[in-house]
Amino acid sequence: MTISATSVRFDEHTMWVELSDGRTLGVPLAWFPRLLHATSAERNRVELSRVGLHWEALDEDISIASLLAGRGDVTRSTDHAA
Question: Mind telling me which InterPro entries this protein's record contains (predicted)?
Answer without folding.
Answer: DUF2442 (IPR018841)
